[in-house]
Amino acid sequence: MTMTDPVADMLTRLRNANSAYHDSVTMPYSKLKGHVADILKAEGYIAAWKVEDAEVGKKLTIDLKFGTDRQRSIAGIRRISKPGLRVYAKSTNLPKVLGGLGIAILSTSSGLLTDRQAEKKGVGGEVLAYVW
Fold this sequence. Notes:
Layout: H1 6-19, E1 24-28, H2 31-42, E2 46-53, E3 58-64, E4 77-79, E5 88-89, E6 103-108, E7 111-114, H3 115-121, E8 125-131
Antiparallel strand pairs: 1-3, 2-3, 4-8, 5-8, 6-7, 6-8
GO molecular function: rRNA binding; structural constituent of ribosome
Protein name: Small ribosomal subunit protein uS8
Keywords: Ribonucleoprotein, Ribosomal protein, RNA-binding, rRNA-binding
């Protein structure tokens, strides 16, 4: 059976593993998921990610990051643009998550960017997710 929204599946797996205090989470790999994981790593929300060969295709393994006393680094993660309702943001009206404390992940013509990177480049695009 084909999956209609693989990014939502990725975010849900991350959210569930984070709330259960798992050290890592594994999911099917795609380039888009790899770029989302790269942004999460660069912003400090996850410890590491790697791609491994599976029986069929490849799998993406994300190592979650916890602070002292097992404090979660990801407080929340939410899918914004869905297959049934796409959400776009202009370069002049980019979303701010928690007043700038979180990040918005956007799919732009320049690739996947955070809201701050998109503002610097002056581009808009589809709002994939909010992470805080």
